[in-house]
TrEMBL record:
GO terms for biological process: mismatch repair. InterPro entries: DNA_mismatch_endonuc_vsr (IPR004603), Restrct_endonuc-II-like (IPR011335). Pfam families: Vsr. GO terms for molecular function: endonuclease activity; hydrolase activity. NCBIfam families: vsr. This is Very short patch repair endonuclease. Keywords: DNA damage, DNA repair, Endonuclease, Hydrolase, Nuclease. Its EC number is 3.1.-.-. The keyword DNA repair applies. Belongs to the vsr family.
Length: 151
C-alpha cells in the first residue's frame, strides 16, 4: 500500500513526534508535583532515561505511548499498512529495549512503573491516584493501564 502523503510531508510529520514532554508525561508530572512528590526528569545516568525519577522513593516512572511501545492488546497499538516489515522490526527493537531497560533498572534496585497512554486517556484521575499510592507504598514494579480492546 502506498503512503497517502509525499515523503517530505511524512518526514516532517514524523520529526514532529516528541520523545519528551509529551502531553501524557506532563499530566503525570503535574499530578505528582501537586501531590507533593519531588522528582528529576530524564536522568541520563539511568538506563532508558526514565521520564520521572524519584531517588527518595527509589522509583522510576516511564510514560509509554501505546503505539510506539506496543501495549499488548490495546487498540492504539496499530501497525501502519505502509512498509509493515520496517514497522515490525522497529517495534520489536522498541519492545526488546524496554524489556532490557526494565530488567537493568530492577537489577540496580529501582522500582519501575510504566504508565500507559490509554490509561491516562480513559481514567486519568484513577490512574494518577494509583500511581501516587504506588510510589509511597514501596511495592515492586508495576504497570498502570489495562489495554483498551476494540469494541
Amino acid at each position: 500500500m502506498a503512503d497517502i502523503v509525499d515523503p517530505a510531508t511524512r518526514s516532517r510529520m514524523m520529526s514532529a513526534i516528541r520523545g519528551a514532554d509529551t502531553r501524557p508525561e506532563l499530566l503525570v508530572r503535574r499530578h505528582l508535583h501537586a501531590a507533593g512528590f519531588r522528582f528529576r526528569l530524564h536522568a541520563r545516568e539511568l538506563r532508558g532515561r526514565p521520564d520521572v525519577v524519584m531517588p527518595r522513593w527509589n522509583a522510576a516512572v516511564f510514560v509509554h505511548g501505546c503505539f510506539w511501545h506496543r501495549h499488548t492488546g490495546c487498540r492504539y497499538a496499530t501497525t501502519p499498512a505502509t512498509r509493515p516489515d520496517f514497522w515490525r522490526e522497529k517495534f520489536d527493537r522498541n519492545m526488546q529495549r524496554d524489556a532490557a531497560t526494565l530488567a537493568t533498572l530492577e537489577d540496580e534496585g529501582w522500582r519501575v512503573a510504566t504508565v500507559w497512554e490509554c490509561a491516562l486517556r480513559r481514567e486519568p484521575a484513577e490512574t494518577l491516584e494509583a500511581l501516587a499510592a504506588w510510589i509511597g507504598s514501596g511495592a515492586p514494579s508495576c504497570e498502570f493501564g489495562a489495554p483498551i480492546t476494540p469494541p
